[in-house]
Amino acid sequence: MSTNKKLIIAVDFDGTVVKHAFPFVGADVPHAVESLKALVEDGHKLVLYTMRAGAFLAEAHKWFLDRGITLAGVQYAPGQTEWTASNKCYAQVYIDDAALGAPLIFEDDGRPYFDWIKGKAILNDLLARGLDLNPIPKDK
Ligand SMILES: [Mg+2]
Q: pLDDT digits over 44-71, tens only?
């Protein structure tokens, strides 16, 4: 679904776009690649937001590059350091398998993974409401 509302979306890596295999990169979580590509095509900005650092972060970044999924930022939203000194990545939506309430799928390895089909439906419902999601604070 395409709407006029364009979001900055922070996306976790392990358990969300790939299966758990840290320090390696696991297999793609079902429907992650097509869903992420669709979000970019709809005009949303994706920011990789992960606990990975150093070479492990580089591997995660490469996963996106290898699949032609454009990232607007890694660990931080573009330009956020101009208006905040916070270490939390700014986003209007966070997609993370560890988020309370995140839709999950349960595979044979005993670990839950983000459910991209249900997640996309939740996002589309949110967008359809036309809400001002987590806006950047305005100057006082
Ligand atoms: Mg995770």
A: 999 999 999 999 999 999 999 999 999 9
Determine the distance separating the centroid of ligand 1 and the alpha carbon of 34, expressed in angstroms: 19
**Digit-coded pLDDT (tens) for 5-31:** 899 999 999 999 999 999 999 999 999
Q: How far is the CA of 13 from the centre of ligand 1 (A)?
A: 6
Cβ contacts of 58 within 8 Å, gap of 6 or more: none
What's the burial of 28, exposed, middle or buried (CB within 10 Å: 0-12/13-18/19+)? middle
CA 138 / ligand 1 centre spacing (Å): 31
Fold (CATH) for 8-128: Rossmann fold (3.40.50)
* Terminal CA-CA length for the chain: 36
> Which residues are bridge partners to 95 per DSSP?
11
Distance from the CA of 139 to the center of ligand 1, in angstroms? 33
**pTM passes above 0.70:** yes
Contact 40, 15 (CB under 8 A): no
Residue 16 CA to ligand 1 centre (angstroms): 6
